[in-house]
Please model this.
Amino acid sequence: MATPRRSARLANGTNSGSGNGSPLQTTTNGHHPVLSEEDSIKDQLKSSAVNVIKPRSFWATYEVPRKLLHSSIGVVTLILNAIDPPTLTPLILSLSAGLVIVTGADVIRFKSPVFAKTYEAYLGPLMRDSERHKWNGVIWYLVGVIFVLTLYPRDVAVLSILILSWADTAASTIGRLLSKSKYNPRLPARVCFGLIPLSPNKSLAGFVAAWMTGLIVAVGYYGGGPGGGGSRGGQVDWRVLEWRRGVAFTGSFVGCVAAYVEALDLPAGLDDNLTLPIVSGALVWAFLSFTSRFL
Model:
């Protein structure tokens, strides 16, 4: 004879026992057994992992399309510098027009999901995931380039753009390639007696890569290369660049500037595409002015 408790379970269509002693829940309508709360949570987690965690391709992980575009700007800059136009006004106006177009596209992207979907379908590979819901990094890139071309001496402006184009790319690429190496530690939080804050995401390998790239670019540019040994289109000569040791000294300084400015821990809202050319250019200009006057 069934006990009242067992009769109640049978009336509800459930059975708490099985042949192996494990809990089993069945229904009288022929559906699958009802999972326990713990099993249900596990299944949800597995389903979420399958739907959310997807392997990233090499091109996405290392931002290959973005880095190629980044680096190509340096090549275009050198070509335009070799042409040596009498004025940079047409170039600055063209870049300003491009800035208006890119900024306008971003405004529409924020307001129109349909446009945003189309925009990201074509230009998504050139964007970081973090830029999908904020201003495109190209905007800050153009602002920085326009700033240095407008206000800095031509050779300093060109060198600033090369640092942005190549030193930044080298730091990011090498840092990611060696991110799992035990010989590639993170940079300290602060240097120079705590005066310079460094980003917690920057590594020693990326720092060294930026330093070496900045050094090579400066020596190549000023040591008889497109920089003309310090001549800025016949405007002014930097005295420090008239001797080889001066070029080497300048290259070492530029490498140091490129590495530290690239690794800065920036306040929220600031983009390194903006700060890198402006800050590095200002420091290089100050260095050339000081050394050419007092050395």
